[in-house]
Amino acid sequence: MSWPRVRRAFRLLVAPDRIRDDIDAELRFHIEGRIDDLMARGLSRAEAEREVNARFGNIDVYMEETRAIDERTIHEERRMELLDTISRETRQALRALARSRGFTFIAILTLALGIGATTAVYTLLDRVVLNPLPYPHAERLVKIGSLVSGKTVAGEWGVSEAGYFYYLEHNRSFDALGVFTRNEVSMVADGRAERVRMARVSASVSRVLGAHAALGRLINADDDRPGVAPVVVLSHAYWISRFGGDPAIIGRPVTIEGFPMEVVGVLAPDENVPLVSAAPAPELWLPLGLDPAARPINSHYLTAVGLLKGGVSIDAASADLARLTARFPEVLAEAYSPAFMRDYHFAAKLTQLREAVVGESARTLWMLLGAVALVLVIACANVANLFLVRIETKRREMAVRTALGADRVHLAWHYLTESTLLALVAGTLAVALAWGAIHILVAMAPTSIPRLAEINLGGSSVAFAFVVSLGTGVVFGLLPLGSRAVSVSTLHDGSRGTAVSRGRRAIRGALVVAQVALAVVLLAAGGVMLRSFERLRAVHPGFDANGVIALDLSLPHARYGDYRSTSELYRQLQGRISSLPGVESVGATTSLPLEGGGHCATTFAEGDATPTPGAAQCIRYVYVTPGYFGTMGIALRGAAPDWSAVSGEHAGAVISGSVANRFWADRSALDGGISGGDGETFFRVAGVTGDVRIDDLREPNPEVVYYPIVPAKGTALWGPADAITMVVRVKSSDPLAIVPAIRRTLVRIDPTIPIANPRAMSDVVAKSMARLSFTMVLLGVAGAMALVLSAVGLYGVISYIVGERRGEIGVRMALGARASEVGGMVMLQSVRLAAIGVAIGLVCAAAATRVLRSLLFEVSPTDPLTLVAVAVFLVLLAALASYAPARRAARVDPIEVLRA
Amino acid sequence: MPTPDLPIVRGTLDLLILKTLSWGEMHGLAIVRWLEQVTHQQLQVEEGALYPALHRMEGKGWLESVWGYTEQNRQAKFYRLTAAGRRQLAAELSRWKSYTSAVELVITAEAGSAR
After folding, report:
1. pTM of the prediction?
2. A41 contact residues in B (CB cutoff 8 A)
3. Residues paired with A255 in a beta bridge
4. Residues in chain B within 8 Å Cβ distance of A59
């Protein structure tokens, strides 16, 4: 008997049919043999068969049982075989990777950088954009506003009280509607005053947003009536930070704007409500207490939010509200004249809450994800090149394996194990890198990106990193299968097959060209951002930020309800602060440059024909105290009123140059009359400012009227300035150091007034550029990574080509080519590859930088200077990257090469 | 032919097969014939039960099998013990011996001897 000398495992690896046939034959042999035995003892065939069947038992049952046993055995063997293969290949791959440390190190580092950067930006995106709203039914939440576009105004307003009630009663699209306003107020609790963010909400806001109380209750319908209940609900974060999470908070008395109130509840932790803009969540909720029966007024100060009914689309709801809005002139005739509706193109405007909160940040972050994804692609191209080199060097090893019987599947296993191991190590490193990167990103990100503080590297980011690394691992592992099949003939073939390497060289050339092209795109994007940033930095904001600090005050309304008390306080405060050592001057305003805010009023110049309603311009008005313009270093024609003019109630107004132009054009505005609101009583124009940027550094010559904090006799203002920002100019390199002294001064005058937000004006300027600088820095980092990776890629390919062409170079030199010519030839080759990449990249960049348009400032997305600079830079880089290989080529010794 | 009258004790079929194969390689039918011969046809075994047992023991690595030809030149599947099978046989034998001697002690003990 010949027993095969093979492991059982292989013998058992057979198809199910084979198993059945095998068992069948075995059992049949048994039965036939048995019948023969019995017939030999003299039984007839029929008797023998009966006897055998009886002794054998149920043949079908035994056969089935045997088959099941065999199948189980085979299954088990296969599993063992697979585990065996994996562990063997893993051990082998680890040994191989450990042997070629350079390859392993560079491949892992390159991949980890690419994956790490992508993971970091993905984490931001995941947290901020993909899942930004902590509410149930976030997809059904909408913000409702009013869209206006008249001759003189355009933009989005809120809704009016009457409009809200009309929508509330007649809409068919919403499960719930709510309105609120936001404000900053001063609150005193436990004898300590503080300025806090407050929202006055209708009771229905909790229903719309699905908010819950962690403690006590929320604002209810009983609170939310005209003559509102003096109750307040705290945000969870504020409860923790201000009251240390004191569980006995319910029923605690607090004073808000001088009025006594009672804490009745605390919001649940994750409800940073209402978050309908990117602004930070309010810390207090108070009842709004609107009166449905009040006379309709054309004032759109309310922010409205709605919860769509299930299955109602935002378009359907828009149509629904448009239908209702069209009826305003008829049902709310006192507030909405047909002329108003026509002149302003007044219309309801619905926005997904998600879009309202993160729309702007989403675009920036998606763009940045695109940028880092490009870096990852460039990194992958480098690693692909490394793998191609490795395949090359392993050709002999593979040929030996093939000769020993390894088939394509085994080779695939080999490569896959190696590349997957590599990618997983890179992925782990990438998670660590991303963790570090996120902390840096969060520290420098603009505050307009919502919910950044809560960001951390979560499970989804780690999953993302590993999916990306596994994906790249598999792609690189399959790379060799795409290249020419390894054949045994390689074994006889001592030299390299030139036909094969020509194909390889083309692939590697293409990879480098792609890298350079992508690097051009990233650098061009970074370049135009940098140029925008420079332009923006060069903008003169209209004031001198150096040495100036700002801090917010808000006066309790109960004690400071009139012009006299507020102005007396400011005057006293300014006097005391001015006398502090190191302080040069002090002023105050209701609206700080670059922070925007404030309100606008219909404004008229004296002597002009009263314009028709709707054609009049709503111009921003700001209150300032004497000393403001001097402290801010704002250039002024004429003179701002001083304290004696203010207290004597004969102070004039100061207007911006643009307002002077609008009303007086070529005449002098000084001593003209200007009126906000009624158009009947006029402030004298005392001064005209230069171009002070109010909302944004980008917008030149905004229109502003600066009124004194006390109206001149015979004129009217909109009430005393009880919330104001003080500005203080200090002779010090660290202007904020004066803040404690200012606090002490204020406490001596009135301890119930809180000071909030002390900040240096230079930080205000920096913050206004934060989104631009954030994007610029990230694109810059992406561009720099792209640059380094492309340089490494070029160097690698040129080195490879030089190595491969040593023979040819030797022959050339033997035939009289000079070393400098050979070196030049090599560098030219590199420059040629780069030039192709640059050409392709410029075309792509022209298309890609368009997405940056909204971020750019006075720079075209296809800024020629930037594009040319990037192109020249990359070509020079290509020459530089090929310098070392070129020198190696020039040093080739023809004799040595020809002898070999 | 005398009727077999001793039903096989559960779990002893493995031992019987291993012991039988320790004399040399055999196909299933030969194993049955051998058992009949040495026990003078006293053991009653459903012959079909042999095959699941053989295949199970092969799966455990105690046996290995190969198709070959009998003296009558017919194709049959032959089994033989592996090294693991020999170790298993030794283990089962010693367990069987200690089992039977224990049973023996019980059934031959005289009343009151425990006192």
Report:
1. 0.68
2. 1
3. A188, A260
4. 48
